[in-house]
Design brief:
The protein is an alpha+beta fold and 132 residues long. 24% of the residues lie in helices and 14% in strands. The strands form two sheets. It has a three-stranded antiparallel sheet with strand order 4-1-5, covered by helices on one side. Strands 2-3 form a two-stranded antiparallel ribbon. Helix 1 packs across helix 2.
Length: 132
């Protein structure tokens, strides 16, 4: 698959923004090992894969690595000094195993303003909208 110069520049900018070296797009390896910087949790709340899990033999092409970087998979192991967005928002690794996700009961309700447009004459109602 051939990419244009503009697409190549945007991909390089994304990769550099995620912490990859400037020349990664030119010198990528066919297979890489990626580490989880974000815990993988099932919809029922169970831990599927913990932070620091190593995944071997994944494709190393820049497109794939860029997509996986957005999901919290990087070629360097996570640590307390890691500056990726996933490590910056979580507790230190020693405490991460004790509390992976915040409890669902502590969710904050979002205030939604009324829609008073002329086309929609009635207010939004329901359990997820603020009652005033």
């Amino acid at each position: 698959m051939a990419i244009t110069t503009k697409e190549r520049t945007e991909l390089r900018k994304d990769l550099v923004g995620q912490g990859y070296h400037w020349d990664y797009i030119d010198e990528w390896q066919p297979k890489v090992s990626l580490y989880r910087h974000r815990a993988m949790i099932s919809p029922s709340g169970e831990l599927v894969s913990d932070v620091g899990t190593k995944l071997d033999n994944l494709p190393g092409n820049p497109d794939y690595v860029n997509r996986k970087g957005r999901q919290g998979l990087y070629p360097w192991p996570p640590g307390d000094t890691c500056t990726c967005r996933w490590c910056a928002t979580r507790e230190p690794i020693s405490q991460a195993s004790q509390s992976i996700a915040p409890p669902i009961e502590k969710a904050v309700e979002k205030v939604v303003e009324e829609d008073r447009s002329p086309r929609r004459g009635k207010r939004r109602t329901g359990p997820w909208f603020q009652q005033s």
